[in-house]
Write a structure and sequence with these properties.
Elements: E1 4-8, H1 13-24, E2 28-33, H2 36-49, E3 54-58, H3 67-78, E4 83-86, H4 94-97, H5 101-129, E5 132-137, H6 150-170, E6 175-182, H7 202-215, E7 219-222, H8 225-235, H9 238-241
Parallel strand pairs: 1-2, 1-4, 2-3, 4-5, 5-6, 6-7
Helix pairs in contact: 1-2, 1-7, 3-5, 5-6
The structure holds NADP nicotinamide-adenine-dinucleotide phosphate.
Length: 246
C-alpha cells in the first residue's frame, strides 16, 4: 500500500488533483516545489481531506545539487517512502524561443535534465530500500517531434526514453517505474491555449493517474484515447510528416 509520498512539483494542478486521492486514503506527504506559500496551501487542503503527516520543502528543479537532500529529508520526516512522484514542468513558447540558445537549454533543463536527476536519486533511494514506486509525468508531446512544440517535446521524449530503460533496469529489483503521458489538460500550464474537445479536466486526469499508480501500470496515456491518437501520428511516414503543419 502507498502510504508515504514524496512529490516534486507539488503545486502542479495535475499533481494536486492526483494526490488529493491519496490524501483521502490517509497518506503522508513530503511536498517539494519552488514556492513555499503555494505548497502550504496544498498542504492545508490535503490535511483537510484526511492526509497524515505532511511537510513542505522549497527547491527549484534547476537546483539539482539539492535533489538528494530533499529525498533524504523526506525519509527522515515522514518515514520510508513508498512513492516518489515527479510532476513539475513548463510549456515554453516554441516559436518565441526556438532561436534563443540559452532559453532552449533552460527549458530542456527544467523539463528533462532535472527530471532525470530526480529519477536517478529516486532510483538509488529505492534500490537501497529494495522496493518502491517512481511515477513521473512526461507527455504525449514526447511521442513525435512536431514544429509547434519540439523543444518541450524533445525534453519529454528524453524523459520517456530514460524511464523506459530505468523500468527495465529496476524490474528485477521489484521497483516500479511509471511513465505518465497526459494529453491536453486544462491547467495553468495551458491557460493561453484555445480549449477544444480533446482537453481533459485535471480532476479526471488526477483520478486516472491515482488509479494507474495504485495498480502499478508501466506506461499510462491519460485520457486513454491519446494512445490511439499518438499511434496514428507516429505511423505517418516521415516523408509526409515533415510537410504537415502540426
Ligand atoms: N497541462 C497539460 O496539458 C499537460 C499535458 C501533458 C503533460 N503535462 C505535464 O504535467 C506536469 C504538470 O503540469 P500541469 O499541467 O499541472 O501544470 P501547472 O499547474 O502549471 O504545474 C507546473 C508545475 O511545475 C512547477 N515548476 C515549473 N518550473 C519549476 C522549477 N524551475 N522548479 C520547480 N518547480 C517548477 C510549477 O511550480 P510553481 O507552482 O511554483 O509555478 C508547478 O508546480 C508537467 O510535467 C507538464 O509538463 C501537462
Amino acid at each position: 500500500m502507498i502510504k508515504n509520498i514524496y512529490v516534486f512539483g507539488a503545486t502542479s494542478k495535475i499533481a494536486e488533483e492526483t494526490i488529493k486521492n491519496f490524501a483521502n486514503d490517509g497518506a503522508n506527504f513530503y511536498l517539494v516545489g519552488r514556492d513555499t506559500d503555494k505548497l502550504e496551501i496544498v498542504k492545508k487542503d490535503l490535511i483537510a481531506r484526511g492526509a497524515g503527516k505532511t511537510e513542505v520543502e522549497a527547491c527549484d528543479a534547476l537546483d539539482w545539487e539539492k535533489h538528494p537532500t530533499t529525498i533524504s529529508n523526506a525519509d527522515k520526516s515522514i518515514g520510508q517512502l513508498d512513492l516518489i512522484f515527479i510532476a513539475h514542468g513548463t510549456l515554453p513558447d516554441n516559436e518565441g524561443i526556438r532561436n534563443n540558445q540559452m532559453k532552449v537549454i533552460e527549458e530542456f533543463n527544467i523539463n528533462c535534465t532535472s527530471v532525470i536527476s530526480l529519477s536517478t536519486v529516486a532510483s538509488e533511494y529505492f534500490e537501497t530500500k529494495g522496493k518502491g514506486t517512481i511515477a513521473v509525468i512526461s507527455s504525449v508531446a514526447g511521442e513525435r517531434g512536431r514544429q509547434s512544440n519540439f523543444i518541450y517535446g524533445a525534453a519529454k521524449g528524453g524523459v520517456s526514453k530514460y524511464l523506459e530503460g530505468l523500468r527495465n533496469r529496476l524490474f528485477e529489483k521489484g521497483i516500479k517505474v511509471i511513465t505518465i503521458k497526459p494529453g491536453m489538460v486544462d491547467t495553468p500550464m495551458t491557460k493561453d491555449l484555445e480549449k477544444g474537445l480533446l482537453f481533459a479536466s485535471p480532476a479526471s486526469v488526477g483520478k486516472q493517474i491515482y488509479k494507474g499508480i495504485n495498480v502499478g501500470r508501466d506506461v499510462m496515456f491519460v485520457p486513454g484515447y491519446w494512445k490511439i491518437i499518438m499511434g496514428i501520428i507516429k505511423s505517418i511516414p516521415e516523408s509526409i510528416f515533415k510537410k504537415l503543419k502540426l
